[in-house]
Amino acid sequence: MIGSEPWLPTKLCWAVVCPLALLAIFCLSLFYWEEPMYNGTVPYPDWAHWAGWVLVGVSAVQVGTWLVLGRYGHL
Known about the structure:
It is a single chain. By secondary structure, the protein is mainly alpha-helical. The chain is built from two helices and two strands; from the N terminus they run H-E-E-H. The protein has helices spanning 8-31, 46-72; strands at residues 37-38, 42-43. The chain is elongated.
């Protein structure tokens, strides 16, 4: 895609460092998650929480979906 073979450090970053960093960020964000408040006092309604989680889920599912379609889409 880029016209040349990526260097080994770049491959290691793509294959190991970035996924581990993203997993750590995700786990820590779940651990430290607090219910968001408007202006620090008014909680958001439940539908807003669900809408936010649906958006997170849609973007997270893309990774596995395109992995499978990219590897097995030609079958």
